[in-house]
Amino acid sequence: MYQEQFVTLAAYNEWANRRLFESASGLTADQFEEDRGVFFRSLLGTINHILCADRIWLRRFTGEGTAPDRLDAILYTEIDALRAAREAEDARLASYVGSLSEGDLARTVRYSPLTNPGLIEARLGPTLLHVFNHQTHHRGQASAVITGFGLPGPLMDLVAFLRDTGRA
Question: Residue 134 pairs with which residues in a beta bridge?
Answer without folding.
Answer: none
